[in-house]
Amino acid sequence: MTRLITALLSLSLLSLASANTLQFDIVHNRDVQAAQLQRRSLVLQRRSLDRRSLNRRAGTVTAALANAEQQGLYAANVTIGTPPQSFGVQIDTGSSDMWVPSVGACTDNTQLDDGCPNGEFDQTASSTFEVVGRNEFNISYVDGTGSTGDYFQDTFRIGGSTLTNFEMGLATATTIGTGIMGIGYNTSEANVDTGNGTEYENLPLAMVNQGLINSAAYSLWLNDLQATSGNVLFGGVDIDKFTGDLISVDVYPTEGSRRVTSFTVAWTSLSATSSSGTDVLTPSDFAEPTILDSGTTITLLPDQLAEQIFSELGAEINEQLGAVIVPCDLEKNTGTINYSFGGPGGPTIKVQMSQLVLPLTTTTGQVPKYSNGQTVCQLGIQPAGQLPTLFGDTFLRSAYVVYDLENNQIALAQTDFNAKSSNIVTFASKGAAIPSATEASNELAVAQTATGNPRAGGATATGSGGSAATYNPNATGLSAARGFNTSGGSAVQPFAWSKVVMLAMSVAFMGMGGGVLLL
Description:
- By secondary structure, the protein is mainly beta.
- It has a domain at 220-502: Beta Barrel (Cathepsin D, subunit A, domain 1), CATH 2.40.70.
- 11% of the residues lie in helices and 35% in strands.
- The protein has 7 helices and 31 strands.
- It has helices at residues 3-12, 34-51, 190-194, 203-209, 303-313, 393-396, 481-484, and strands spanning 21-27, 60-68, 73-80, 85-92, 98-101, 130-140, 146-158, 161-174, 179-182, 217-221, 229-234, 236-238, 242-250, 264-274, 277-280, 288-292, 299-301, 316-318, 323-327, 336-341, 348-352, 357-362, 376-379, 381-383, 390-391, 399-404, 409-415, 424-426, 437-439, 500-502, 516-518.
- The two termini are 21 Å apart.
- One of its GO terms (molecular function) is aspartic-type endopeptidase activity.
């Protein structure tokens, strides 16, 4: 089996099983799907820039997540079928379907040079396999990739726990070489718009209904960029994985609808802090609908706010690379970019430079350099253009995030990187409040104009507060910029950009139409 599967299987041995619980790590594997993710990264980054102008408790499930640092992929090990077949699948809070490629789906596609190295499902080898929606699975992505095939039911295992007759997608044709575990709202399943129009029990709901967890909720701890693993905990909160207060904010439906399809929250402040000061970059009435999505590897900000951040950090858009670049030395800077949610009484997450500066490497193993000899890195923030505002992994690594699908709330706290201990508090019952969390006071509200989850390509978002398209007119200047100065800014030495392997920007936008558990 592939390196990813091997790594995940070894980590899964650390999981412990008990009644109504499931816990396992998510692995940060640096060798996953480099070529395929690079292709998606280049398309999405250029489009965005062009548009600019191991504990386990009863009622919980914990799963290990593998972190592909170079490609931005967080993956978990699962098995499907009888006897079980092993897969490495990407964890994605921004989509809702669990799907895997079928045998032959990748080898028949010339776009997938590496095939499907993380597993292909052989339906003929499973005695519990049953098709429930012939030709009804159809998921597409904004970069032109996608998968089509059938919906099926089979035995599904994750983190030492088992689901029977669990519904998934089987890709008989795909341009994506690894399966995806969507754990968002079932209202945004591909089947709702491209299949027979009905919703089914996706993973969080199936875990509740089969008694693995008490409430459809989970906590995500990605850990830091250099860590080999993090985890996702279904049905509970690990209070040893964060520092400070865990504060909850509301998740908002699409404008003019009561239907919640994505994890959209009210982002209400952006600031930059360094040794030379703090700059508040948004006005006091700022409120922007923002989607929290682990399937997006970077952070997409409204264009003018992104430009403000670039000015603070000394970043520049390099059209040749199709990336926002910075000197790699910036990762050593102690400054932070600060994001607040829900208004003054809501949570604030501080993102260190070490979580934002990402490597750029040539296919021959060389690192691009500026003409002054400094190495070139990629910044994990880009202008959104016409895409929604999305906070992906370059934000989420710095936050401990609890997703409560029952009560339409998200709780955030500053993460505790590389925490060694675990203290899990379980959701007491279906619909119970988030354990150990307090609600934001006097919360500001927003309206999401996107008509689906963050995978609805081309959707835009507008807030009910100050416009996200303008920075703070009362900003005190770039006082923090002096503290971020790394003396870069010289020209990048010539090289073949086609040979550059950038951190993949996996914004897997699904086309419209188309207890506790820890992963």
